[in-house]
Amino acid sequence: MEKGHLKIITVLIVLGVSLGLLLGIQKYYNHSFVEGPVMHDLEQLAFAESVTVNKDTGVYDFKVQIKQAGNIQYEYAKIDGIIKNELKGKDYQLTLLDHRSPKLRKNLENMELGIYEAMAKNNFLWLDETFRQAANDNNFSYKLFIDDKRLYIQMADQDYFLYEIIERTTAPTGVQDKGE
Prior knowledge:
- The structure is a single chain.
- By secondary structure, the protein is an alpha+beta fold.
- The protein has four helices and six strands.
- Strands 1-2-3 form a three-stranded mixed sheet, covered by helices on one side.
């Protein structure tokens, strides 16, 4: 009987050590060959103040703090390209962190319905005019950028800036999917 218990205990110990070793190797691999190169490349960007990555939910969650207002569309595309190139098909989320003021936040909140209406109707000239009026009335600057996937909103007031990236749910009129 005792030899049987000893064999079971030995097998359990070997399994525990093996599992621990495999998990350690996987963590080392992810850090050294996946997260490490992405973090290094992102930290080299002139407009990136800091970069964090978290994978608690099984999806890489990148947060990039931007130093100062620049060109949101360019910065997002550059960061997104680096991540896509390094992760090679793995799921991830990207968030650009800005330096918002209550004034900028309130102005964006006040225009939220108009933003989504303009996106639904592809009426971005009207949205630009709405932003222009709000910027004149409330003394801030803004830039709007758009591509086939996202609307990029950039607002600035003195040392504060706000970046908002909104996914477009439908392709703009006249753009067809290659698969159709």
